[in-house]
Write a structure and sequence with these properties.
mainly beta; globular
Length: about 100
Amino acid sequence: MQDCSKLLALPALPSTLQQLACVCCYALEALPNSLSSTAVSELHCYSCALESLPQLPLSLVELEVGCCGCLLQLPALPEGLKRLCTDNCAALAEVSSS
C-alpha cells in the first residue's frame, strides 16, 4: 500500500500473506493483531502514524521501519529475524523482550 493518506487501520489479514508494505500511509495508527498469524516474511512501514506494532509472525525475516515519528516501541522480535532496520523513528525507545 502506498499513499493511502486517510487509512487509519487495516482489516484482518489473510494467513497466506507473505509481504506487507505500508508507505506514506500518514494516518495509519495500527496494524491488525492478525499479523501474528500470517506467513509474512517481510514487513516494511514508512511514514505511518504507528505507535507500536502487534506481535510479529514467527515467519518474519526482515523488518524495516522508517520515518514513523510516533513509534514508541517494537514487540519481541522473532528468533528467525535476519534484518532489522529502523530509520528516523525519533520516539522509538524500547524493544520488548517478551
